[in-house]
Write a structure and sequence with these properties.
- The complex is a heterodimer of chains A (386) and B (318).
- With 386 residues, chain A is of the alpha/beta class.
- In chain A, 41% of the residues lie in helices and 17% in strands.
- In chain A, α7 (225-237) packs parallel to α8.
- Chain B is globular and about 60 Å long.
- The termini of chain B are far apart.
- The chains are: A alpha/beta (386), B mainly alpha (318).
Chain lengths: 386, 318
Amino acid sequence: MRKKILSVILAASMIAACLTGCGGAAATTGTADASAGSGAGLFPAVPKDQIKVGVIHITDPAEGSGYTYTHDLGIQGMQKNLGLADNQIIRKNNTDDGDPTAIENAILECIEEGCQIIFATSYGYMDTCEKVATEYPDVIISHGTGYKSNGKNFNNYFGRIYQARYLSGIAAGLKTESNKIGYVSAFGKTLSETGGGIDAFAMGVESVNPDATVYVKVTNSWYDPEGEAQAAQALISDGCDVIAQHCDTPNPQLAAEEAGVYGVGYNSDMSKDAPKAVLCSVMWDWSAYYTWAVEQVINGTWTGENYYGGMKEGLVTLSDLADFNDPEAAAKIEEARKKMLDGSFNVFDGEIETNDGQIVGTKGGTLDDATIQGGIDWYYKNVVEK
Amino acid sequence: MSFLIKFIVAAVVAGTPLLFGTIGEIMNERVGHLNLGVEGMMSLGAIAGFMAAYRSDNFAVAIAAAFLAGAAGALIYAIVTVTFMANHTVAGLTLTIFGIGLTNVIGFYYLGMSENGTMKLPEHVTSQMRSISVPGLSDLPVVGELLFSYNPFIYIGIVIAILLAIFYNRTQAGLNVRAIGENPAAADAAGVHILAWKYVNIIIGGGICGIGGAFTIMITNGGVWISDCVGGLGWIAVALVIFAAWKPVNAIWGSFVFGAMRILKYYVNKEVIHIPDAFYDMLPFLVTAIILVIVSARQVRDKAQPAACGTNYFREDR
């Protein structure tokens, strides 16, 4: 009995020692940071050779082509732009975004390794990021593609991918001969990100080809290799001769290539997967944000504001056009791109007619960012979800 | 009409990887081994078939490599369960986890070495693996498209299934193999080589699963390597074995029916019939559950699972 009590006391004291040990370590790093302070932001500046950047990925960047790969290219771009060493980037790969414990562990590991800023790249990390950010007010947690933030050490970053989708719609609208354009989407108008993307694409199509219709098929998954291929095949069987996509694998483009029709890629330049089919790809260049954000931390000018970059910031781009595009495409796309860059055209301008006969927006106005990010639950007039 | 034909063609293509997985699993269960490693063996077949095609640019080499990789996975399972009599369920699940993991690791390694994060099969093998064209026959209206427009995998799968059906139903050796699955002690007493036949069936079955894995990467994913390319088809194949009542010929049409159920949601016009997508996703499993209930209620003996399936046979326990 005495042995038992002794062992319990021993265990308890060990746990207590552990806890105080951890707390102490965190406290010292906190004060060390404070003493280095200068600049106008919420946090003190960090010398470039001392900054550590954490990244939480949902899969492994090595998988190629898709979502994580594109984010990691952004991280690598940032590392190169700022001249950081390899050991200043801490990656936590394969962090399941449906598993709060795994997410929290990944973030805490980054904090323990001394990261001042942590990028969480998947939507599902949002709530855990919010929680950890309140517990560790000295560490910046920057969450991608969500909508929550606290204005201090937890912000949200995303981009106006709809601008590039509008431009790709021009290429598709000019190329189609059947006037049927397919669109394989992870989700439909139930999610503003996908719904808005489809609408912007359809508006680009309509700007050059009012007779064309955009047919949407929804896979209900961001990553469903088989479903994405089958959805594309169904669209092609239905007579679509350009296949655009908002999902992670290049399978819709490969299906288009096999059937001898065309497509519009997404995430990274998919012409490397299907060179005979891809007219152009709608691409993210996350290095634009990652470089900007890490620079803010280094300079001590971090203000906790949300980031919603677009074509102007270089976050969103359209790949080079393939040479089998319609001859007019390059000029028409350039024209629209210029208008977007000088601010005279914002895609969701004026009164917009939806496919169920409603009118969205106001004459002379444009949809605000909050609506674009969270309130597009309609399809443009030339869209049909099948 | 032409849309219906396209739907049928797409259903057959969607069902083909299931056909291979199902035949492989039937061969396992016919000798009394419930092998839940189908997904893993298919994954191994996928990476081996892909890398072989990538390096050799030859379709036949790719199929052979996929078969060997699937068979190698099955060999591990056979050693563990037949010789060392481990629990079938645990050994099979382990094989699945191992197969998927090893496949992704190899895939990551080669993607990391690739130029721009993409590996795509070369032109020559791509043209070999895509749909065949039989002069004269493929151009026939309707029939040409329904029967002679597929990629070579589909014909290979059907031939294997028919050969296997003949083996089980028309040969002495096939009858012996079926006896092993029903009552190994009786088969042993009758002089059947239990160990040898178990190994042969499990390994060849694994190889056939491997070919199905090669299908997923070469056809479904168009010959571009992606992680987790089998994507759960191996599990559906395990369900299909029940649907097919452990008969290879039933596996042919059963897998095409399952293929049809899997693509149905993309071919139903949502403007006319509006059912939530989740319904289509659960359809194959719902149908399997219903079939299971019907079969067990009617107690038709030749449509039941082989009686000794899932148990180990130890001669000295007799």
